[in-house]
Amino acid sequence: MPLRAKVASSVSRTAAALSRAAGRGDGSVIGGWIGLKIDPDLLAHLSAGRAIALVSGTNGKTTTTRLTTAAVGVLGRVATNSFGANMPTGHTSALAKAGSTPYAVLEVDEHYLAQVLEATEPHVVALLNLSRDQLDRAKEVAMMAQLWRAALVNHPDVRVVANADDPMVVWAATPPGDPARGIRPPHVTWFSAGQRWHDDSWVCPECGHTIARNGDQWWCSGCPLRRPDPQWAVEDDGVLDPTGAWHKVVLQLPGKVNLGNAATALAVAAEFGVRPVDAVSRLGAVTSIAGRYAQVDRDGRNIRLLLAKNPASWLEAFDMADFAPTLLSINARDPDGLDTSWLFDVDFAPLRGRQVLITGDRAYDLAVRLDVNGVPFQHVRTFGEAVRAVPPGRLEVIANYTAFQDIRAELDRVN
Ligand SMILES: [Zn+2]
User: Fold this and answer.
1) Which part of the chain is the Mur ligase central domain (predicted)?
2) Which of 28, 63, 172, 361 supports an S-S bond with 331, CB 3.0-4.6 Å?
3) Domain coverage including residue 190
4) Annotated catalytic residue: which of 334, 339, 347, 371?
5) Does residue 339 carry a catalytic annotation?
6) Do residues 370 and 256 share a domain?
7) Contact between residue 171 and residue 137 where contact means Cβ atoms under 8 Å apart
8) CA 222–ligand 1 middle distance (angstroms)
9) Is the dihedral of CA 106, 111, 114, 118 positive or negative?
């Protein structure tokens, strides 16, 4: 690395360490910020010589990044931004801290994908899904898809691993290329992870006609855009690879959605030459991720934490949760997005018949939504009150970002 980059990298590591020592979080944002101030090209310098995978999408990127890191670990040491700091400051900090590793797997905020593609020149980019999120500030889904598509045009050599079940992702992953300028369309490997949420992809991003669906299949009623045949797919409790071989996947993470994340991780790792048969057992070693899916025993209750931040992830959480007493907690602080009107995009009917408790800064918004949805509930002021209000046994907790962090702190920052 050039001298300036070496200095920037060293200062970045020191700043992150100081921040950690001062008890101000993991320091990855401040460390990366200072490093990039000293050398604006630091992320590019730190990326040089590494084979990198980027993982982006609205939901599942933290979990998929962790699973992919485990899978690529078959080959050697892998740098990753394991604290979910998924913007360039976090990437810079993660690579500076890791020192020299042959591989890196980086979770990327979907808004920053173009910038991070440019800086890191990855070998692979995984595109998971696109759905509405943080209504007060996030881009419309179609605009996000357009940004991804435009970014990929400039990187025809990157290997794309993309979700065949999401029409917006399929469109974003298949820019036509430009033969006159010698630009090829990117090479895409498709995976199928299933998609429960369809409400951001009824309209074709190419031509504006409606998207028709039948079972797993979807197609545009006005143009050739349709679901590609996936090379990787979830089948029963395992994953089918492109050769047709089936691999049983035993995860410590719940739900079909995590099997889909496992399929994605195996597909990305395969782009580095990792055989699924070698990687699959490593996926089972991944337990909770920054508290997500963590289980804690407290006063005879087995409490499980599920993070859900937007309508698509709430649907997945209902599917993952056992039919057991369920605490819902909603905040609307800055990291959550300030607009809670998305609660009306979620169908809470799957909770009918369960004991439902609500809490959080915006519990009353949730109360109105549940009342309209015909789901009985009980309001509790504290997490402790919720634990006392349910019988011994499983308590499922579904919370959005800061509400989740509050509860995790009550449980002594469970991992
Ligand atoms: Zn169309």
Assistant:
1) 55-167
2) 361
3) 1-282
4) 339
5) yes
6) no
7) no
8) 5
9) negative
